[in-house]
Amino acid sequence: MITPEEEPLAQLKPMPEDWQRALAVVAHPDDLEYGCAAAIANWTDAGREVAYALVTRGEAGIDTLAPEECGPLREREQRTGAAVVGVETVEFMDHRDGVIEYGPALRRDIAAAIRRHRPELLITLNYQDTWGGLYWNTPDHVAVGRATLDAAADAGNRWIFPELAEQGLEPWGGVRWVAVAGSARPTHAVDARPGIDRAVRSLLEHRTYIEALTDEDPETYCRSFLTRNIEASADRFGKVPAVPFEVFSR
Ligand SMILES: [Zn+2]
Fold first, then answer.
1. Which stretches within 56-121 are classed as H helix?
2. Alpha-carbon gap, residue 245 to 15, rounded angstroms
3. Which domains does the chain have, with CATH numbers?
4. 168 Cα: distance to centroid of ligand 1 (angstroms)
5. Is the N or the C terminus of the chain less surrounded, counting Cβ atoms within 10 Å?
6. What is the pTM of this model?
C-alpha cells in the first residue's frame, strides 16, 4: 500500500488567473510575508486588487514587548510590508493574539470582510495541525484558516448571519477559490521570481519581530528563509522557484 507521503510528487498547476479581486485573511502580521508575498506582488503588478484582513495585531508575538506597545507597532510594520507588494488596504479585526477561537464570531467577522471586499479569490494560511512532518502549527493559524474556508460559504448565505445584511453588507457568493499558503498539500503554484525581491523587503518590514527572533542579519535571514521556501517547490513546478498553494474550488 502506498501512503500519500510515498506517492511520487505530482506537478503543481498554475494558479487560476481569471479574477480581479482577492482578499487575504490571516491571524497575524507577518503571516502573509512569510507565506506568499511574492505571489501577491505578481498579482498587484498585473493590476489586480488585493486587500489584507488581519484577525489580530500580533500583540503577543514579541517576548520583550508588552501587548499594548507591541500591537500598534506590528500594525505599522504590517501596513508598510503590505505597501511594498502593492497592497494599500489592510484591516484588523481585533481578536486577541494567541487565543483566537474558531466559532461563529470568527466566521461572522471574516464573512463581513468578504462581503465588504467581494473577492473572487480568498487567500489564507495553513489550517492543518502541522506544517508537514512534525512541525506543529499554532492554534491561531488553524482557527483562522478553517474559519476562512467556512466563511467563503457563509458570506453568500443571507440567513446564517442576518445582522450583516442589516448593517448593509449584502451577501457575496462570488468566491470561486480559496488558496491556502503554507499548506503541506499544495496543488497549485505561482512563479516567485518576479516578486521575490519585494517579498524579501516586505518581510523585512517586520523588523522589530525579526530582530527579536534571530541574531542573524535581518536581510540575510529574510532572503535565505524565503529563497529556501520557493526553491523547495521548484521540483514540482517545472524547475521554477514558486509560491505553492492548496486551492479549494467553489
Ligand atoms: Zn502567524
1. 67-84, 104-117
2. 8
3. 19-249 (3.40.50.10320)
4. 31
5. N
6. 0.95
